Amino acid sequence: MVDESNKGISANEIALYDRQIRLWGLAAQERMRSANVLLITIGGFANEVAKNIVLAGIGSLTIIDSRTVAATDLAAQFFVTEESIGKNRAEACLENIEKLNRRVTVKALAEDFRSKDDNFYAPFDVIVASELTFEEYLSINEICHSLNKPFYAAGLIGLYGYVFVDLCRHRFIIEREKSNISAKIGPETSSRSIVDIKTVREGVTSKEVITKEENYNKLSDSVKNATSVFRGLRSRALLKVSPVLPAVLAMWDDADKGSTSFHELVLEKCRSLGLPVGIISDQFTTSFENSMPTTELSPVAAVLGGIVAQDILNYLAAKEQPIQNWVFLDGDTFSSPIYCI
Amino acid sequence: MSRDDAMKIALGSDYNAIQSARVLMVGAGGIGCELLKNLVLTGFGEIHLVDLDTIDLSNLNRQFLFGHEHIKQSKALVAKETASKFNSNVNLVAYHANIKDPQFTVQWFKSFDLVFNALDNLDARRYVNKMCLIADVPLVESGTTGFNGQAQLIVKGRTECYDCNPKPVVKSFPVCTIRTTPSQPIHCIVWAKSYLFNQLFGIGEDESPDLDNTKNAENADEIANLKREMSELKRVKDAFGSPEFVKVVFEKVFETDINRLLSMEDAWKYRRKPVTLSYDDLKTSVNRQNIDIRAVLSKDMVNWTIEENVLVFEDSVNRLSKRLQLLQKVTDKSESFPMLSFDKDDEDTLDFVAAAANLRSKVFGIDLKSKFEIKEMAGNIIPAIATTNAIIAGVCVLEAFKVLQKNFEKAKMVFLSRQPGRIFSTESLQPPVPTCAVCSIARCSIQVDVSKMTLGKFLDEILMTKLGYSAEISIVTSKLLYDIEFDDNLNRTLKGLGVGEGSFISVIDEDDSGDLTPRVNLEFLVYEKSFNSDDIFYSLESIPQIPRQPPKNDNIDDKQSDLEAPLVSSGSGTTHKRKAEELELGDGIKKARVDPSTAYMDIIDLDDDETIDID
């Protein structure tokens, strides 16, 4: 592994990253280059995230996973093979991840993240967790948010999936050609405001460089807010809400369910969120329930892994609109709304 | 507990169709690597992959099946080798070949349940689209550019094909913009790459596709000017090989030619006047500054100063001259004159184009660009990242599930375009455009001895007698073989006219005279075969039923008259716009099937029990 992290970006790196530098620029690439990312468990979704951000050339990646590779892991994980079965997941994938890009420092910790204290998270720039329980996401997010560290949680449930993003407070730039509709400094939405506007001349054209800031909710607050954000929306809009949202929240409800069917639980969740129960079909809840709590399919992992990885890279580059703050994917209908809760 | 569990849970018994599926993936690059990984992990039983390309360093930021050690090797073969490790239950077959190769016959395409395009060019996409329509195999088409991407399903008779809607045309510039009045860096780059480079080291004349000669110079003055410039440049080449060559070239293009342009005063009434460059003055400045050429060449992301550009111009001209001279030495005099061609990855040619373009920009008061930027513009580089390809490849497999589950209504056109509020936007797949020259024509195949079958016999016996055409038709391959005013070829054999295995012969009905409208185009796919008999040397697989074009009459609903329809090929071989009311999309075809009183439309011939379902 070539350690070039202390020096500036080399000509060889520029040649390797040529096609992506042409998209996000050299400055963004240099910022990514020094980034330190943590992946908590390395399932199929995390395989995809790891592939994408290592190829892009982040500085270092740490993977922590106490589980061992099982045959079912092979459905969506390409860093491990049959020979890896029984080995620790983090250690088993290390070599193949390193091979993707020798410039990235990759560390594998065959440990349980639950044994780590808050200081463990301090050196990282971004923390990504998957395959965990709601309570585990809550507790990691609490730590991250208090340390002002960006946090991503994601889950794959058969053809369905979700992503939750908490970037705390994040400033980023958007570049666009100077348009007739001028941007104004000040709030844009309840979470986002425009902080600065610069005009940059490039020959005969002008472009605007707009600095924005997004403020994020913790997971605990967001889930509480869910019961109020949909109130006041017109029924046309409500009927378009993704069924994956109430299904995920129903799945996460810790309350003693008794003999209530999952379908009923999802309907109840709809009612408590102010959503029409018509968005929930039997077929959907059956399909979802069969795949609960985690069933990782390769194409769904690829889609969500790509979405999250790009958001991470954008965050590191401090460019482009980040996800604010939930994505719900339905691999059956291709519905993929972003909800700000 | 097995690797199949997740898929069985998610898809149930539909997973069997995936495990026994035999699929083809065309392209093993950005989308291809991601798609192959998904297909293998998901457990598609047999996967064939075709790619003609080899691996390059610039691929490695996203084509993750390849490593540094694979540079210059075949993409298809290395992709197979790496991906086969992901699932030993899957059978992979790789071809380092061009999908247009004759080995990939219609029969071969027919052997697949599904085809995936993972291509980066229009020509190959069109080709695969056509083959999949002929073979009647569903095609998942996709593409990505930077952060954006899209995927769609193409099914013959059910959805639009790739050619149902016109695709954007590649940009070309008028000659005067390039040669006389440039105003943007790209104009100077095209000048350097397609004019100056070719005149000095390459093709010569104006054979370059970047220069659009149909949009000609505005007046006689300008035309005369350009001609004189070019003939002078040819004389300049006589100095080739001499130590003064660089100076002679420089003074010609950046001084003499500019002075001549300045004499055309009208051109500069409202435009900024070009300014000549003095080779001697600039060289003096260069020498005074003591510039290190190596350092200049390696700093490709920063603009060079005018002196640095002069130095690079000189240095690259010398390098290219040496190479050309070497080529000339080893080339036999009787062969065609050796030449170099521009390649963005050929540093000598890139350095030359960069310096020349910048010098020309300086002349015209246009901003200079860095070598990095010039490489992108001159080389038509499309920025590309791993994530977009990974996402779209995932979408392709999700689309494939719908095909194998026979759930076509669930398949969509999916766009990844960074819209606020959602990741993907989707559109329903539209039915085929009835006037599409690729998917909505009649097709049949013919087995024929091309060295015995004459065009005349083809016309008389097959087209007129068997299929009922009049003599008022055009027969076209890549050129016109016959029409009512051009019968010179009737005695020639098909072979003599360039028709062979895999050729397409189109028959265009020009007969507008009767009660019925002309027929839609009929396209024959030719298979070569020798026959034992002296009399019989062809066989048609079946007599195709050829529907008539929709009529131009008043019965049709006026509601859609505001809509402009895409250009179509009419019987007279010219193109004209049809109003939407004439098309009666979808409904018109349905009518033909259920209402026998609409006698103006022949029933469309279908395979056996297949029906057209229009959503």
Task: Provide keyphrases for this structure.
heterodimer; A: 341 residues; alpha/beta; 8-stranded mixed beta sheet; 4-stranded antiparallel beta sheet; B: 615 residues
Description:
The complex is a heterodimer of chains A (341) and B (615). Chain A is α/β, with parallel strands linked by helices and 341 residues long. Chain A is 37% helix and 22% strand. Chain A has an 8-stranded mixed sheet with strand order 3-2-1-4-5-6-11-12, sandwiched between helices. Chain A has a 4-stranded antiparallel sheet with strand order 7-10-9-8, with no helix packed on it. In chain A, helix 5 (89-100) links the parallel strand 2 (60-64) and strand 3 (105-109). Chain A is globular and about 65 Å long. The two termini of chain A are 42 Å apart. Chain B is α/β, with parallel strands linked by helices and 615 residues long. In chain B, strand 17 and strand 18 (575-579) form a beta hairpin. Residues 554-615 of chain B have low confidence and may be disordered. At the A-B interface, helix 1, helix 2, helix 4, helix 11 and helix 12 of A face helix 1, helix 3 and helix 16 of B.
